Amino acid sequence: MNASDKLEILKELLLTDERKYAESITKKLEVLEETVNKRNKLLPKVEPIIDDKLEEFVEDIPKTLGPTITAALKEEIANSQDAVVEALFPIMGRMIKRYVQHEMQLLQENITEQINSRFTIKGIKRRLKAKSAGVSEAELMLIEQGASKLHQLFVIEKGSGIIKASLTKDNTIDHDMIAGMLTAIKSFVEDAFQSGEQELQQIQYDLYTIHIQNFSQYYIAVVLSGIFDTKTQGKLEDLLLNFAQHKINKTDLTNQQEFSNKLKAYFTNEYI
Amino acid sequence: MSISKKIVLLGHFGVGKSSLIRRFVENTFSDDYKVTIGVHILKKSVQIDGTDLSMIIWDIEGNEKVQKTRNSYLMGTAGYIYVFDASRPSTYESINEDLTYLKGLLPNVPMHLVGNKVDLIDLPELKKILTKKNIDCKYFASAKTGDNVETIFESLGKQLI
């Protein structure tokens, strides 16, 4: 055994751990090199990080870029109003045209329906009314189109919001829920604005109006569409007052079915 | 015979009033906590002793103090349930004071005091604590597991017909 061999044996004995460590590092480096250089190995590692970052970026857009974009858009629109009008005109024009067409079609359908009903009791009544008022039947038909149409009517106990009677021409959600929520809204408004003895009388939403008429133990909520002007409101108030004074009795408040039948018999005209 | 009655749920925020109602009305539970804003109204019809009872349940937003509840929401109440969180002592520390206040507002109106979230606590231990505090609570429930929920509403319903 020469000196070189002895040195090798000595190295073997003394540096075993270091060599193993160096080998493991070499292996790790190889794996890393392979991961970095091979797309199919790198992608699964990097993709989730990129996805997270992208998600964060998208979430942050409204905060970071939103104000800048809005300001830029505002400035651009202000500076080139003619161009904006030109760009929007065809779209808006088409939308308005379609809306008007749709409404005209509805009007035409309703008038046709009315003409077809000329020989019904309702039609005969209209003709008599036209004659007595000295106007044409066509005029009356047009007036009817703009008139307030009664969709739903609820008699609701004050405070509890328990429904006592209802009359409905449309299918809607549960009447008890409507009565409850209307009462909650009414209570909230009356409480929030510390209105004392004053009570909520009307709610308007889009093409509909909810007229609320208050009595001592209950209130009546009427859902209407069409033109609801002061004259119509007065007419409806008189109608409801008359119903409350002459038709409602104490037993009605305890028998929902009978009370609802009474409502149905009284409010036969769907227009106010 | 068919009747409708207004039932109100009261208590601090986060005690599980909405969860109890959802469990009773829809038989569901969600861990997502959604604060009730204002009031939410639900309905459940039950038959008790041959009577069809429509329970119109008013889920009123929770407050730190029951005195902050809008009195107008309590008008016409036929029965109410005062809920506390069995796992949160701050929600039952002032119960007797709160109940005295409510009894003043709603005299002779049936009431059930309910400890909710009992799945999270040691019930005998809680009962000891409540006794020490002079709190007379007969109903314990878990909206999560559904334990006792139906019984409580039906028991109150019986008092209303």
Automatic annotation (TrEMBL), chain A:
What domain of life does the native source organism fall in? Bacteria
Q: State what protein this is by name.
A: Cell envelope biogenesis protein OmpA
Organism of origin = Spongiivirga citrea
The beginning of the lineage is: Bacteria, Pseudomonadati, Bacteroidota, Flavobacteriia, Flavobacteriales
From TrEMBL, chain B:
Which is an annotated GO molecular function term of this record? GTP binding
The record, for PROSITE patterns, names: RAB (PS51419)
Q: What keywords does the record list, in alphabetical order?
A: Nucleotide-binding
Give one Pfam family, short name only. Answer: Ras
Q: Name the chain's protein.
A: GTP-binding protein
Taxonomic placement: Bacteria, Pseudomonadati, Bacteroidota, Flavobacteriia, Flavobacteriales
